[in-house]
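Re: the pair you flagged

First of the two:
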Amino acid sequence: MNAEVKKHFHCLRSRIQDFERIAMEQDKESDKQALLDQVEGHRKQMLSNQTAWRKANLASKLSVDKMEKKALLNGSDGAVRQRKMTKEGLARNAGDITENLMSISRMMAQQVQQSEDTVTTLATSSRTVQETNEEFKAMTGTIQLGRKLITKYNRRELTDKLLIFLALALFFATVLYILKKRLFPFL
């Protein structure tokens, strides 16, 4: 039973470390801090669970030692009766300890499940942020291309206006020259 609980603690510790690593990879400082606060809460809960588990183990060992000490001190008169009571007490204590350990194990499983859900949610939101970032990069390229085209068309518009002005000036100069030669040939 202790080995199974230790295995659960090790699994929970690695999940919390994974969660902390993912939290450190966040770009937004507010998200990063919120996730680090959750990591710290999970870590404190794990430490309190470990402490409770150790206390339960210690209490069971003390109870067994106390009952053995009583059995030794009471002597051999009624030894059969005492052994029977000791066995019943040991069985009861073992049952209580097992129940406590199972409760701790359930709490740890809930914490692990909660951490898994949080990691899944974080991975999904991270993927969404990356997709949004890629879309923004694509839009930035499109906007830059649009800006270049607008600048090019503005230059062409200015060039066209200048050419039209020069063409009109040449046209009016030609018309004036022709009028001058026909109306005033002596000048």
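Second of the two:
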Amino acid sequence: MDDDDDDIPQLSSHTLAALQEFYLEQQQREGMKTSQGFNQYSIGSIEEDWQLSQFWYSDETASCLANEAVVAAGKGGRIACVSAPSVYQKLKEQDDKDFSVCILEYDRRFSVYGEEFIFYDYNHPLNLPENILPHSFDIVIADPPYLSEECLQKTAETIKYLTKGKILLCTGAIMEEQAAKHLGVKICKFIPKHSRNLANEFRCYVNYASGLD
């Protein structure tokens, strides 16, 4: 027996199981991507990047928010998804309906969605393409990436520039006071869920009579 084997660090059974689960999920995702019926708009087709504070909604939540946006926008309506890519993806799955949608997102991986992708950095809230006119969207759904008043305030500038009036904001429950202050929105009964459990409780906020109560 080689004494050097004693110096090799051993993974705990818990860590090993977690690694095996991670690799299994990765293999399943790759298998989906190479299968014939792969849907480029399915949630998870672009994986979360936690360094960018990305946490995708559960399928049920994304569907609920997408349906709410379609109803709120009305026939032929325009919808803007600000830092809410999983809602955008759900909207694209029902693209047979009469609406148009744009995704404003910092993560350039979403540029695969073509002209509907608009690079967006909340630190420069009004740095938008010239063809994005003020008050040109029937509803804006936004999920600021960070639970800070600075991030919310700057994202609010973008939201108020884009929307004709209706706002659907998703952020932490701890941001309720700041959300009312910067956007005049009120908390909804509906509680959004994420595909992975988060430490912070999330809520939805609106400034119109929605179906989320």
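The first helix runs from residue 13 to 34.

-B.
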